[in-house]
Design goal:
- The protein has one domain.
- It is 70% helix and 0% strand.
- The chain has helices at 6-34, 37-43, 48-66, 68-76, 82-97, 107-136.
- The protein starts with 5 loop residues before the first helix and ends in a 21-residue tail after the last helix.
Length: 157
């Protein structure tokens, strides 16, 4: 489906982004409530910075995997400027989830702790889209079923 209309494609990417934000919120609430991973890591003796160093890549990878459906939907729009549609998909969810921080005078004191939370929020969908674009890109055409000239048809043995 090649949508040439920028307003339609932009609206669809915003809708996909909002749906993805809600999907991630529900998935992460379920993961936080029922995943035994944190208890296992704490039982292994990980604490503080080492625990965060192990959890961050796992959380980012989980967010990327959970973002595959939204990335696939955005790639089905076949945008010529994927970065624009990714920005439109990520922007509303990011602003909505951080709306409390805008204008907060204490935000500067805690900005560093929020930055690690923003990385998966901002980059999970683009990484998922990049991976899917790489995996789904059309390769060379399959010419194996096209007839090849028969060397015997020209009368040469």
């Amino acid at each position: 489906m090649k949508l040439q209309s920028l307003p339609v494609s932009a609206t669809l990417s915003v809708v996909v982004g909002i749906a993805q934000t809600w999907f991630l919120l529900f998935c992460w609430a379920y993961i936080a409530a029922y995943s035994p991973l944190l208890r296992w890591l704490v039982d292994l003796g990980l604490q503080g910075g080492s625990l965060r160093a192990v959890l961050f890549p796992l959380d980012f990878l989980t967010s990327v995997v959970l973002s595959f459906p939204a990335a696939f939907a955005l790639l089905r729009l076949r945008p010529s400027k994927l970065w624009l549609y990714l920005l439109l998909a990520i922007g509303p969810g990011f602003v909505w989830s951080n709306r409390e921080l805008i204008g907060d005078p204490l935000f500067a004191q805690f900005a560093g702790s929020f930055a690690l939370g923003w990385l998966p929020q901002l980059f999970a969908l683009p990484v998922a889209a990049w991976i899917l674009r790489f995996l789904l890109k059309p390769g060379a055409p399959n010419n194996s079923f096209q007839g090849t000239p028969n060397r015997f048809a020209a009368g040469r043995p």
